[in-house]
Design a protein that fits this description.
single chain; about 210 residues; alpha/beta; 8 helices; 7 strands; globular
Length: about 210
């Protein structure tokens, strides 16, 4: 998993509360477990005017011009602004895979669904919770300012806006460690590989009948 330390990126605002995982990546695209290839189907039912199916050539599909991801000013965005309860619904990890495959490395919202929030850190996406009043300010700024970019520093736990406003954010230490070091669940376990090896060697000596 790619480590996350600092990110300077264009921001795209998704001005809808309670965005569930079926909206992020609809159910028909959940057949693959490769973690890649989901980007073209991110927000599929909002992004396109037709019904999407797996393995469909999305480059030929009619786009919804009113959906924010299709607007020229937000092309290449790396940071997503969201509203309350982002990522609610089913626990599908594919929702984070789709965001990551599209290019989103950071999602900022007033609140997240718990499982989605956890899945972000397991898949290299930084989820930041900010005060609702502050989020309102940031939404106004990004909508009023073309090429609105933020600088996100995970090590210092701070965001810097185009006007040089410094915004601190809180994050659990273990989750921060995961992202800074690019550790998924397997990577976390492998950090204890030597302890596991010694334990198994001791068990073989003390309880040989188990082997």
């Amino acid at each position: 998993m790619e480590p996350f330390k600092q990110l300077v990126g264009l921001v795209v605002p998704l001005d809808r509360p309670n965005v569930d995982t079926d909206a992020i990546i609809p159910k028909q695209f959940l057949k693959s477990i490769k973690r890649t290839g989901f980007g073209p189907n991110l927000f599929d039912e909002w992004r396109y005017l037709d019904h999407g199916e797996p393995d469909q050539d999305c480059s030929r599909r009619p786009l919804n011009p009113d959906f924010v991801l299709n607007q020229p000013r937000y092309q290449g965005a790396r940071i997503l602004f969201a509203r309350d309860n982002f990522g609610c619904g089913s626990s599908r990890e594919h929702a984070v895979w789709a965001l990551s495959d599209y290019g989103i490395r950071c999602v900022i919202a007033p609140s997240f669904a718990d499982i989605f929030y956890s899945n972000c850190f397991k898949n290299g996406v930084l989820a930041i919770i900010l005060d609702p009043v502050l989020m309102e300010q940031l939404f106004r700024e990004v909508m009023a300012t073309p090429e609105y970019r933020l600088s996100v520093d995970l090590e210092k736990q701070q965001i810097i806006t185009p006007s040089q406003q410094l915004i601190p954010f809180n994050i659990d230490g273990a989750l921060k460690h995961r992202l800074l070091n690019g550790l998924d669940d397997i990577g976390v376990i492998l950090q204890s590989a030597e302890h596991i090896r010694r334990y198994e060697e001791r068990r073989r000596r003390e309880e040989p009948w188990l082997f």
